[in-house]
Specification:
- The protein has 3 helices and 5 strands; from the N terminus they run E-H-E-H-H-E-E-E.
- The protein has one domain: Beta-grasp domain (Ubiquitin-like (UB roll)), CATH 3.10.20.
- It is globular and about 30 Å long.
- The longest helix has 11 residues.
- The protein has a 5-stranded mixed sheet with strand order 2-1-5-3-4.
């Protein structure tokens, strides 16, 4: 009730853009993930690693925590700085970007 046609209250897709060295690991610049409604950034992270196991050592430390030099942006905002961090719920049609450490000189 009140839901627009074509929208699902139980799931949705989110496109994740990978940057720098992560594109090589994934084999593409973007990937689409199906997530349950109310899915968190942590759940998306788990799904990314399930689909692309080689991402795990690039994103997570031995304790399973996101490296501090890796940034996951939700609608242009670093998830680490959102109120609930990785437990932040991903809004519908969110833009997600995953950035590894980048060095330059």
């Amino acid at each position: 009730m009140g839901e627009r046609p074509g929208n699902s209250s139980s799931s949705g897709t989110v496109e994740v853009k990978f940057f720098a060295t992560l594109q090589r690991v994934v084999g593409a610049k973007t990937a689409v993930f199906e997530l349950a409604a109310g899915a968190t950034v942590r759940q998306l992270l788990d799904e990314m690693i399930r689909r692309y196991p080689l991402l795990k050592p690039e994103l997570l430390d031995d304790a399973g925590n996101l490296y501090s030099h890796v940034h996951i942006f939700v609608n242009g905002r670093d998830a680490a700085f959102l109120a609930d961090g990785l437990e932040n719920v991903i809004p519908p049609a969110a833009t997600i970007g995953v950035f590894p450490a980048v060095a330059g000189g």
